[in-house]
User: What shape does this take?
Amino acid sequence: MPEPITTRDRRRAAVIGAGPNGLSAAITLAQAGISTNLFEASATVGGAARTGELTLPGFHHDLGSSVFPMAAASPFFNSLPLGRYGLRWIQPPVPLAHPLDDGTAVLLEHDLAATCANLGSTSDAASYRSLLQPLIEDWPALCREILGPVLHLPHSPLLLARFGLYGMLPAATLARSAFKGARARALLAGLAAHSVMRLTTPFSSAIGLVLAAAGHTTGWPIAEGGAQSIAAALAAHFESLGGTIQLNHRVATLSELEPADAILCDVTPRQLRQLAAVDLQQHHRGYDRQLARYRYGPGVYKIDWALSDPIPWTAPDCGRAATVHLGGSLEEIIAAEAEPWKSARGSGRNGKGSDAPKPFVLLVQPSLFDPSRAPAGRHTAWAYCHVPNGSDVPLAAAIEAQVERFAPGFGDCILARSVMPPSDLEEWNPNLIGGDISGGAMTPRQLLLRPTPSLYRTALPKVFLCSSSTPPGGAVHGMCGHLAALLASKF
Ligand SMILES: Cc1cc2nc3c(=O)[nH]c(=O)nc-3n(C[C@H](O)[C@H](O)[C@H](O)COP(=O)(O)OP(=O)(O)OC[C@H]3O[C@@H](n4cnc5c(N)ncnc54)[C@H](O)[C@@H]3O)c2cc1C
Assistant: This one.
């Protein structure tokens, strides 16, 4: 007979999935003195924070995430000695460049005044300053509010109220009401497009404002050596606390795990329904129905390039930023970001021809600032656009056309490319359902109450969700895992 858990001298926990949130949950449990085993399906830790040679030998590509404003701002990551395990942030001179068809680029500079000066008009500069200055001044407090527990008494109610006043607006409305000129409007549209929401949807401004404020404070760093360095540092710290990691171990059902006082699942609701199918269907049908109703958002269509040279931008300023937004004007970006919400088959996107789509493209060129990414003199670049969930419509040509638009001659620099449509992304990492990189749609309701009103708690005793399908949602910051584990460790 196995010994009952309660008579053991040490509490035990299991974590399923070694993405940034699974690793953060595991560290938090280990910090509480709980004996913690982490199970990961892949051969390496990191989930969507991994790096590999996707194209040619010596070219190291971020397979998922690549730029880390929220990791640099994360109160949990900042409490850990990750530098001791080799994590080094590289801050490009400019967080973000947004080229326009007139051959110039709007820049989100670290310096607020410098950003205001390139917005094209004094009135837009004044509006930008009045929107951002309060968020910048109270940035650590804002991070605690938006990355902290959903249900809490605000520590900075005035700041939160001011942020909410503008953040709850559709980005299209905020851009048109706050700014008169094309430059500031385009900048805000590109920032807000990270929300993976239609820009006409309430709350689509919020992520844009947070990312702008991050640009002026913690920056938009890349990790030296790639995203894998973040995961490797988290894993090394976890192991230093006595935790164990089992790689190549895909958990098929919760019942295969040894008895534990808590099980934390770095998976999305659809996977939890598979991991505990019998239990949920027999004993917790109401909760199972809630999980089934959870909505996944648009997917992404991703390309990585090995390049012979730096991208030949028309606007030379684009070479000062790791992140470049390719989508032109506010109106174009609004239209582009509405497309992924249409059905995959009815979207009319075919990637070529006169009706070829102009997707909004997020591009990262890390090797300009981190020579370890490519052989000497060579370069890497990474890009994606949002597409309908699970869409298999080829978009590589449309993405490359957007790069050519702002960097004629780009095609001549391509040595090799790797193309990952949503189905390939999901095959690589089962959490990327239909290519959704946020762990679920960022609808106004699911921004806060994800995946169900009980958040991290499931209907299953001792079983918790801790992935980006829980608050505060997508991006590499580890806060979903940390907050879930704080709750779980109170047994
Ligand atoms: C293409 C792309 C670009 C992105 N860009 C950025 C960016 O630039 N900046 C940013 O901050 N964020 C970005 N993100 C989002 C960010 O990577 C995710 O929000 C973050 O990785 C979520 O962490 P997670 O731990 O919740 O899940 P994941 O990172 O998805 O990790 C989940 C892990 O669980 C494992 N797993 C799942 N099921 C099982 C099972 N049954 N048994 C064992 N293991 C299992 C998976 O193999 C995986 O390793 C991007 C994501 C993608 C895909």
